[in-house]
Write a structure and sequence with these properties.
Blueprint (H helix, E strand, L loop, with lengths): L1 H18 L5 H4 L10 H4 L2 H7 L16 H9 L12 H19 L53 H11 L14 H13 L9 H5 L7 H5 L6 H13 L6 H16 L27
Helix pairs in contact: 1-12, 5-8, 6-12, 7-8, 11-12
The structure holds 2-acetamido-2-deoxy-beta-D-glucopyranose (3 copies).
One 2-acetamido-2-deoxy-beta-D-glucopyranose binds next to helix 8.
InterPro entries: Glyco_hydro_19, Glyco_hydro_19_cat, Lysozyme-like_dom_sf
Keywords: Disulfide bond, Signal
GO molecular function: chitinase activity
Length: about 290
């Protein structure tokens, strides 16, 4: 059921590749289509509830935790850096849809015939339940604190000591000692997610933000590997080793389906999803053996 529905979404996405005009090309030339609207001005509490309508049901694992206010508080730290404040209002909403689609995919507890549909269940979790590992890898820079578990926590869940260490350094919070803060402070959890989106995840790669705002231009080597700007590249950055390069991966399709729905709900419309929404044809950007 779910696979079939998603496959249809995916085919729609593929069709868009050939028909869509250059991805927000209009704004690439710079400031002329800038708006100065804040995220709060284009993304209301009601919009947040529309995208995440089921998050506070008693069966949701993080009921009462996630809210619009703390998202806006967290986003304020990154608005001056261009997070969802770059380009025209369509680009602002498109970046929000893309970012929140990944958040929803990572935190969903939806299923194919779930009430309100499979993509209405984002922000159901704030933490990985029953982790089977401490996610500790020996590191000189970000050594594990004995007894502390670095399992997935947050809105775009953070795993491993070195990722907690890196984000903690950036956010000036000692996440190496207190990774649990990402499951007890929604503002901090959203900040960590937006930081993941704004910073390159690995050296010599663009950030997801740079991809979605048209700032990243692929090299000849990239295009030779079918790597182009679009939502699919953000999947490749975040989890390409698992989801990209082998056709219709179901996790990739779930991300795309959330993205298309969120574009509709935010008034952009899935017809404006841009080309290359998937990464099934892209060479994966990294393997787990590349150390960042
Ligand atoms: C945005 O703000 C900058 C700096 O205050 C200003 O120079 C620019 O004209 C504003 N742009 C628009 C579209 O209002
Ligand atoms: C939650 O995190 C935010 C952002 O880092 C911080 O300003 C705030 O004081 C924290 N709240 C609590 C209760 O620790
Ligand atoms: C070319 O791109 C592929 C895929 O991203 C990457 O694995 C490879 O390292 C790149 N080669 C060079 C020379 O940059």
């Amino acid at each position: 059921m779910r696979t079939t529905g998603c496959t249809i979404f995916f085919l729609v996405a593929l069709c868009l590749v050939s028909t869509a005009s250059a991805f927000n090309a209009f704004c690439k030339e710079g400031k002329k289509c800038e708006t100065n609207k804040t995220i709060a001005q284009i993304f209301s509490e009601q919009d947040f509830d529309t995208l995440f309508p089921q998050r506070n049901l008693p069966i949701a694992h993080a009921a009462g935790f996630w809210n619009h206010y703390e998202f806006i508080q967290a986003a304020a730290m990154f608005e001056p850096l261009g997070f969802a404040t770059t380009g025209d209002e369509i680009m602002q909403r498109t970046e929000l849809a893309a970012f929140l689609a990944h958040v929803a995919h990572e935190t969903t507890c939806g299923w194919s015939v779930a009430p309100k549909g499979p993509f209405a269940w984002g922000l159901c979790y704030k933490e990985e339940l029953s982790p089977d590992s401490l996610y500790c890898e020996p590191s000189d820079v970000y050594p594990c604190v004995p007894g502390i578990s670095y399992h997935g926590r947050g809105a775009m869940p953070v795993y491993w000591n070195y990722n907690y260490g890196k984000l903690g350094k950036y956010l000036k919070k000692d996440l190496l000692h207190r990774p649990d803060w990402l499951a007890s402070n929604a503002t901090l959890a959203f900040q960590a997610a937006i930081a993941t989106w704004m910073l390159p995840v690995r050296p010599k790669q663009p950030s997801c933000h740079d991809v979605m705002t048209g700032k990243w231009v692929p090299s000849k080597n990239d295009t030779a590997n079918s790597i182009y700007p679009g939502f699919g590249m953000t999947i490749n950055i975040l989890n390409g080793f698992v989801e990209c390069g082998h056709g219709d991966d179901i996790r990739m399709i779930d991300r795309i389906s959330h993205y298309l729905l969120f574009l509709d709900l935010l008034g952009v419309g899935r017809d404006n999803a841009g080309p290359y929404t998937g990464c099934g044809l892209q060479k994966m950007l990294y393997t787990p053996f590349d150390k960042s």
